[in-house]
C-alpha cells in the first residue's frame, strides 16, 4: 500500500520541471498552452522513456501557480501522478535523502546529459 503523500504541506517541492512522454506533452499543451518563457526540451528516448521536459528559465514547472498548486492537476502527466509512489521516485518532502541519492544516480549515469546539449 502506498504511503500518504503530504502534497498539501510541501509546497510543490517535486515540481521542478514537468517531464512527459511526447503524446502526453502534446495533449497537455493543446489544452493548456505553455506560459510565456517556458521551454519544452526534447529528451533522448533513453531518459526514462520521456519525450520532453518543460520548465521555466532557472527551473520550475510552468504550470505551478504562485500558491504552489498545480494549475493542470487533472491533466498532469503520468510522471507527476507517480512521483513519490513508485520505487526510484521518492517523495522529496518525506524522503529528502533518498530523493537526493536518486538524483545523484541519474547525474552519474549520464542520463541527464541532455542538459548540456539541449
Task: Give a description of the structure.
With 118 residues, this protein is an alpha+beta fold. It has one domain. It has helices spanning 7-10, 22-31, 78-82, 96-109, and strands spanning 18-20, 39-42, 52-55. The protein has a 3-stranded antiparallel beta sheet with strand order 1-3-2. The longest helix has 14 residues, at 96-109. 19% of the residues are buried. Mean pLDDT is 77; it is low at 112-118.
Short description:
It contains 4 helices and 3 strands. It has 118 residues and is an alpha+beta fold.
Core attributes:
single chain; 118 residues; alpha+beta; 3-stranded antiparallel β-sheet; disordered C terminus
Number of structural domains: 1
Instruction: Report the end-to-end length measured between terminal Cα atoms.
Output: 38 Å
Q: Could you give the count of β-strands? A: 3
Low confidence ranges: 112-118
Overall residue-averaged pLDDT value: 77
Count of runs of 4 or more consecutive helical residues: 4
Strand line-up of the largest beta sheet: 1-3-2
Structural class: alpha+beta
Give the topology string: H per helix, E per strand: HEHEEHH
Query: What's the main sheet like?
Result: 3 strands, antiparallel
Roughly how many Å is the radius of gyration? 14 Å
Shape: globular
Helix residue percentage: 25-40%
Please report which band the strand proportion falls in: under 5%, 5-15%, 15-25%, 25-35%, 35-45% or over 45%.
5-15%
Amino acid at each position: 500500500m502506498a504511503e500518504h503523500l503530504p502534497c498539501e504541506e510541501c509546497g510543490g517541492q517535486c515540481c521542478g520541471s514537468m517531464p512527459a512522454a511526447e503524446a502526453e506533452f502534446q495533449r497537455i499543451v493543446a489544452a493548456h498552452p505553455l506560459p510565456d518563457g517556458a521551454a519544452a526540451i526534447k529528451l533522448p528516448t533513453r531518459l526514462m522513456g520521456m519525450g520532453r521536459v518543460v520548465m521555466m528559465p532557472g527551473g520550475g514547472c510552468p504550470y505551478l501557480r504562485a500558491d504552489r498548486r498545480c494549475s493542470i492537476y487533472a491533466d498532469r502527466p503520468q510522471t507527476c501522478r507517480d512521483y513519490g509512489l513508485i520505487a526510484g521516485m521518492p517523495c522529496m518532502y518525506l524522503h529528502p535523502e533518498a530523493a537526493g541519492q536518486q538524483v545523484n544516480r541519474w547525474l552519474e549515469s549520464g542520463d541527464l546529459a541532455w542538459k548540456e546539449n539541449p
